[in-house]
Amino acid sequence: TLRGTKEMDHMSPRLRAFLSEPIGEKDVCWVDGISHELAINLVTKGINKAYILLGQFLLMHKNEAEFQRWLICCCGATECEAQQSSNCLKEWCACFL
């Protein structure tokens, strides 16, 4: 399920931890790239769990650019946060879907 060791070496510890197991009931702040401030914005929109954010990513057909625009425009993410979190969800999908 986890990607090859070579690929894992280039990942941040937070991303590696997120990819190490199914999402389950993890809070949205577990997603790599989601800062404390962004997590608060997401929770106020009803997105309190990582699986709900993943659902939004899947509804957008795993289109990273569209997902990043949505995070920036609707949730107040920075460009860096949007890129990191969409990459995290993309990598999770590659491991578990």
From TrEMBL:
The protein's GO terms of the molecular function aspect are:
DNA binding
Q: Where in the cell is it found?
A: Nucleus
Question: Where would one find coiled-coil regions in this protein?
Answer: none
Give yes or no: UniProt keyword Chaperone.
no
* Cellular component GO terms held in the UniProt record: condensed chromosome; nucleus
- Pfam families to which the protein is assigned, alphabetical: SAM_BAF
The primary location reported for this protein is nucleus
Would the keyword Nucleus turn up in this protein's UniProt record? yes
UniProt cross-references to InterPro entries, sorted A to Z: BAF, BAF_prot, BAF_sf
Q: Provide this UniProt record's keywords sorted from A to Z.
A: Nucleus
Q: Looking at the record's lineage, which domain of life comes first?
A: Eukaryota
Which parts of the chain span the membrane according to its record? none
Q: A GO biological process this protein is involved in?
A: chromosome organization
Q: Could you describe the subunit structure of this protein?
A: Homodimer. Heterodimerizes with BANF1.
Function, in words:
May play a role in BANF1 regulation and influence tissue-specific roles of BANF1.
* The name this protein goes by in its record: Barrier-to-autointegration factor-like protein
